[in-house]
Write a structure and sequence with these properties.
The protein is an alpha+beta fold. The protein has 2 domains: 78 residues, Glutaredoxin (3-Layer(aba) Sandwich); 108 residues, Glutathione S-transferase Yfyf (Class Pi), Chain A, domain 2 (Up-down Bundle). It is 52% helix and 8% strand. It is built from 9 helices and 4 strands, in the order E-H-E-H-E-E-H-H-H-H-H-H-H. It has a 4-stranded mixed beta sheet with strand order 2-1-3-4, covered by helices on one side. The relative contact order is 0.15. The structure holds glutathione (GSH).
């Protein structure tokens, strides 16, 4: 981390959370110094009163900025763009920015919520049923995304520059693979995913490099 200490930042996150990975990746990409506090979702720490006081949404991630708390990964990512404009993750061209936000929303609002822990547990107590549900919805969502990316992607989701769209895509593919979605039928997504996984900031933010990560 090399960026000057403009703010005191602490990220509340879970190692395997795709929403947390998005934010960790931006922080590493921009070289922003931050502390981190793991919130164990499997132990229900997101529902502890002390955490709910910080983030009433009861999800990770949350970012503490100089003693103020904020939830919602996209709100956090947009703030990081405004406050740390070096190494931007939004394009200059406004139509491209809209394309990036369209892809982000497709993933963040359209795909990720249906595989959330709380949703899976409400749907079924059987892990096999949960996995089937998650796999079907993620697979269907990624097919739609693949069609969209055919008209926007070059090296990355929108053109040849890394953007927030890629920060949303790669963690979602990690989840897809956890739920055994076959992404070999999605060549654009697969190619972008492989490219991004080689980026040092993506790797530093990846689940296997976080405190508390396990093999499962
Ligand atoms: N819209 C929120 C969603 C956050 C979210 O769903 N986080 C998941 C982990 S990726 C979570 O905390 N799940 C806990 C639960 O379902 O109880 C965001 O983008 O930050």
């Amino acid at each position: 981390m090399t960026n000057s200490a403009k703010h005191n930042l602490t990220l509340y996150h879970y190692w395997r959370s795709s929403c947390s990975w998005r934010v960790r990746w931006s922080l590493h990409h921009k070289g922003i110094k931050f502390e981190d506090t793991p919130i164990n979702l499997l132990h229900g720490e997101q529902n502890n009163p002390a955490y709910l006081d910080k983030n009433p949404g009861g999800y990770v991630p949350a970012l503490e900025v100089d003693g103020n708390f904020f939830g919602e990964s996209l709100a956090i990512l947009e703030w990081l763009e405004e406050e740390y404009p070096e190494k931007p993750l939004l394009p200059k061209n406004s139509l491209d920015r809209m394309r990036v936000r369209q892809i982000c929303q497709l993933i963040v609002s359209g795909i990720q919520p249906v595989q959330n822990l709380a949703v899976l547990r409400r749907f079924s107590s059987d892990p096999a049923e949960q996995a089937k549900w998650a796999s079907e919805w993620i697979g269907a969502g990624l097919c739609k995304l693949e069609s969209l990316l055919k008209s926007t992607a070059k090296t990355y989701c929108v053109g040849d520059t890394l953007t927030l769209a890629d920060l949303c895509l790669v963690p979602q593919i990690y989840n897809a693979q956890r739920f055994k979605v076959d992404i070999s039928t999605l060549p654009v997504i697969s190619r972008i995913n492989e490219t991004c996984l080689k980026l040092p900031a993506c790797d530093a933010a990846a689940p296997h490099n976080q405190k508390g990560a396990t093999a499962s």
